[in-house]
Amino acid sequence: MRDFFISNNYHEVETPTLANSYGGANAKPFKTFLNELKQDMFMRIAPELYLKQLVIGGFNKVFEIGKQFRNEGMDAKHNPEFTTIEAYLAYADMTDMMDLVEDCLSTVTFETLGSHELTFNDQVIQLGRPWKRWHMVDAIKELSGVDFWNPYTLDEAVKLAKEHEIHVEKHYSIGHIIEAFFEKYVEGTIIQPTMVYGHPIEISPLAKKNADDPRYTDRFELFIMSSEYANAFSELNDPIDQRERFENQLKEKELGNDEATEMDIDFVESLEYGMPPTGGLGIGIDRFVMLLTNTPNIRDVILFPHLKHR
User: Fold this and answer.
1) Per-residue pLDDT for 256 more than 90?
2) Rg (CA), the chain
3) Confidence of residue 42 (pLDDT cuts 50, 70, 90)
4) How far apart (Å, rounded) are the C-alpha atoms in residues 153 and 175?
5) Which of 208, 254, 245, 189 is nearest to 97 (CA)?
6) Which residue, among 23, 175, 8, has the nearest Cα to 92 in the 3D structure?
7) Which of 138, 146, 227, 230 is the most buried (most CB within 10 A)?
8) Tell me, what DSSP letter sits at residue 201?
9) Residue 122 per-residue DSSP state
């Protein structure tokens, strides 16, 4: 994977894993305290905001392979400490990122296995290009019959959720309800590589609004065997819009969403200097290794996985 990006003229960098704020994803952080500066610090949940500041600073093609830390649940697909690659390309958008993720993972699969075909949990997976591209709203409509292209009010969306036995939290907006419909009716049905795009704006605080329908963003996630393998989008580069998104995340946090991101003033200020149109992607390396090696549990691809203390 490193060879793929270097051969395409991306510059590899390292950014801090210990930071005075956390952002770049919706997740609970590990919190600590820096005695010398007398301030709270966090283990990063993603390197995204640092890498985008490098784009602002003139690194037009940049990537980082490194550890992320999320203080959340553990299961066959999740470990609190895990490895990702994130890459950013200036003057690119979501469609470019779709092409890049396809090219990267299909190339790495072939270089590793000598074939684009592999078997995972007795299911044959084809990673040769092209992959299916499916709008989230179209997928929900096809599999549940509910059409979120309609301009539902929040009350109408809540009513639809209750009719379909979907639990609604206090902080839920229409976007969260759309995501819950996707998770119930669509996610578990996806076997072959599928890029699901058009995520609601409420669940995509760092992605650019879609020009045709600002309720949705130019963001996609790659799903294979009902699991997410990549997340990518046209990066939001409007500092006013970004500040508003962060403020909305803070409101969600007050309503009980402990995975909402926080306000990052340094990042908003950096956007004020000007970030070019940019596409960014993140790929979970542990899960991809699981796929390539037909290993159903993440603990079996990490040398020292976290275990309950005896």
Assistant:
1) no
2) 19
3) very high
4) 11
5) 208
6) 8
7) 230
8) G
9) T
Q: What is the Cα–Cα distance from 159 to 157, expressed in whole angstroms?
A: 5
| Count of CA atoms in the C-beta half-sphere (13 A) of 116 | 14
- Tokens, residue 300: 């079996």
Give the count of beta carbons closer than 10 Å to the beta carbon of residue 86: 24
How is the beta sheet containing 81-90 ordered, strand by strand?
11-12, 61-69, 81-90, 278-284, 227-234, 219-224, 194-197, 132-135
Residue 223 reports pLDDT greater than 80: yes
| 278: β partners | 90
Q: Are the C-beta atoms of residues 199 and 219 closer than 8 Å to each other?
A: yes
Kind of pairing between the strands at 31-34 and 278-284: unpaired
The residue to which tokens 């290794």 are assigned:
289
State the Cα–Cα distance between residues 309 and 299, nearest whole angstrom. Answer: 15
Distances (CA, A) of 229 to 178, 282, 289: 20, 8, 11
Closest CA to 306 of 292, 289, 288, 286: 286
Predicted pLDDT at 307? 84
Alpha helices in the chain (DSSP H): 2-7, 48-56, 94-113, 136-144, 154-163, 174-185, 239-254, 265-273, 285-292
Could you give the CA distance from residue 69 to residue 30 in angstroms, rounded to a whole number?
7
Cβ proximity of 195 and 220 under 8 Å: yes
pLDDT at 22: 81
Q: How many CB atoms lie within 10 A of CB 279?
A: 24
- Encoding tokens for residue 288? 């991809």
Note the pLDDT tens digit of each residue in 266-285. 899 999 999 999 999 999 99
| Sequence letter at residue 18 | L
- Omega prior to 130 cis, within 30 of 0: yes
Please report the pLDDT score of residue 258 as a whole number.
76
